[in-house]
Write a structure and sequence with these properties.
Elements (H helix, E strand, L loop, with lengths): L2 H12 L8 H43 L4 H26 L8 H40 L3 H41 L1
Length: about 190
């Protein structure tokens, strides 16, 4: 068989022109990516809401039953405020969902918007470790706990801050990937 015959057989089997983007497959891939981003944002939000509320309630409760440490009350209030901040962001994110079209471009724009929200949320919560760690250390200082306990807590907070930088980088790379795809689609 010659090349022209092979090409003709190929074209008749697929009945599709060569070098064409399969829009349906691309849209399916974008929907999958969008669902991943939305799932990660939802899980992150609920984990932050639950852990901040539970840790704030535990800190407040243990502080009222034992020694009354001012910095622990401040830390508990900060944790409650952090949970409310994340809850407000969750509600805002959910209420803005309908403004995106159910098209290939609309789904991709929604995925980019959700990824941007996740990047901002992870950045805020990363820096949130610093005031919580500071109030915990000040609480140890106020109660006169041994210095090595404060050193362990400080090292743990530094480790959490470092790990959150790694996590933040993952969210940034996912957002960059989606933004690059959006830019390529908008150029065509």
């Amino acid at each position: 068989m010659e090349f022209e015959e092979l090409q003709q057989i190929w074209d008749t089997q697929n009945n599709k022109p060569l070098y064409v983007i399969n829009e349906q497959a691309l849209h399916h891939r974008i929907i999958t990516k969008k669902q991943q981003v939305v799932h990660i944002a939802r899980i992150s939000e609920w984990l932050l809401i639950i852990t901040n509320t539970a840790a704030g309630a535990f800190t407040f409760w243990t502080n009222t039953t034992g020694h009354r440490i001012v910095f622990m009350f401040v830390m508990a209030a900060w944790m409650f405020a952090s949970a409310m901040y994340v809850l407000a962001g969750y509600i805002r994110r959910i209420t803005t969902t309908p403004r995106f079209d159910r098209t290939l471009l609309g789904d991709l724009q929604y995925a980019v918007a959700t990824a941007s929200y996740q990047v901002r949320l992870s950045a805020v919560m990363r820096w949130n470790v610093l005031p919580i760690g500071a109030w915990a250390l000040l609480g140890f200082w106020e109660t006169g706990k041994p210095w090595w306990i404060a050193l362990l807590v400080g090292a743990f907070m530094w480790l959490v801050f470092y790990a959150s930088r790694w996590e933040h980088g993952i969210y940034q790379s996912k957002k960059r990937e989606l933004q690059t795809l959006l830019n390529k689609l908008q150029q065509q």
